[in-house]
Amino acid sequence: MNHHEYELIQAAKGGDNRAFDELVRLYDRRILQVAHGIMGNMQDAYDAYQEGVIRAYRKLHTFRSDSSFGTWLTRIVINQALNMKKKWHRKHGVSLDEATESTPAMLLDDRSQADEVLLSHELSSEIRESMNRLSDRERSVFVLKHMHGYRLREIALMIDCAEGTVKNYLFRATQKMRESLQHHAVADASSVGSAASSS
Predict the structure, then answer these.
(1) pTM of the model
(2) Which fold has domain 3-91?
(3) What is the CATH code for 105-198?
(4) How does pLDDT run across 135-159, given as a tens digit for each residue?
(5) Among 1, 27, 73, 82, which has the minimal tally of Cβ within 10 Å of its Cβ?
């Protein structure tokens, strides 16, 4: 945590709303993208994000600086998104409404390069459907790791579980995605199916 962020946190805890707004702006774009990856469409993601920020404001006095403010805020928004999905699952089925915009590089064999794969509309649809088959926790870990580059330790803090549990979620999500997308390998890129069978 840099000095400027530390000062903003102290000011926000002292009741400075502008300081809190500035803190949130440091991370809002990335956190909204994380919420979108979990919720599947931007409107629901924005609702989860807004509710999460409100909750963070109310709980700011509990922030102890044992993690970065960004990690703490992301965790709150993720929890809000997961809670919203649980409620909707109980009422009716929830599906992802928008396609993922790019293929995570980890879906390819380690010998492949992401830029060797050409995304088509059909592939985007397959990615959407494949992600919809993941559990909420699997999808959260997948999005945080492979679409936003968070480390396993950071993800463990964000979703409040052990790092080993995060690894298990990630492994299961990866295997499910590879199996779903194995027939979409293109040209010289190594087959996703081969990667899955050799794992």
Answers:
(1) 0.64
(2) Rna Polymerase Sigma Factor; Chain: A (1.10.1740)
(3) 1.10.10.10
(4) 888 888 888 888 788 889 888 988 8
(5) 1
